[in-house]
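Researcher: We're teaching a course module on how sequence relates to structure. For the next exercise, students receive a sequence and then see the predicted structure as tokens, so they can try to spot secondary structure elements on their own. Here is the exercise chain.
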Amino acid sequence: MTTTTGLRTFGPHEVGWKLHVRAPVPKHVENSLHGTRYAARHGYDTTDLDMLPDAVLTERAKDPAPMTFAEIVGHLRNTHWEDPFRHDGFRDPKHILGKGDLVTEMHPYELDRLVAGHWPGRRFHIPRIEDQLALCGELERQALLEPKRSRVWLRQEVWNYLAAMADWHGTRTAVYSLMHECLPYARQAGFRAWPIAA
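Model: And here is the predicted structure for the students to work with:
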């Protein structure tokens, strides 16, 4: 991972240096367990965790009935692009899914089998947010959660779940997003949260 840079991220709260990849390195490098370990080894303070829900949670969020943690667990992913094939170099080894298929339309077992990269030991997958929060806690790195556009982030139960997971793993967290309307929900769950300027 040679084409990386540290970005000083400012907001109402200073979060320090975060790992950021520059083109032509795809975003799956940054949004991976490999990337989180790389950031820790190279002294970055913060790991940026882009977040999107899978099809199960996207569909469940349409129902106004309160969600339980059991309905949320395993359905949030650390990925930047909604289309992981066109923008992020992923492929489906079974050749069932492809360009135009979206993370928010895929089931967990479909997301689990997607892969990017070609070198043994350096293949990338789309991690579950729980795995990233656990790793950030283990490596004592702050997780900077960045929800991408989805109605899922307008559900208080989802933010309460993320806060509980971060607390469980002892992971320092903060939130920033271009989706400004989700930030009050994040704050209600106890996160420091601020908007990214459009």
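Model: If you want an answer key for the exercise: The chain is about 30% helix and 20% strand. The beta strands are 4-9, 16-21, 46-53, 76-78, 142-147, 173-177, 193-195.
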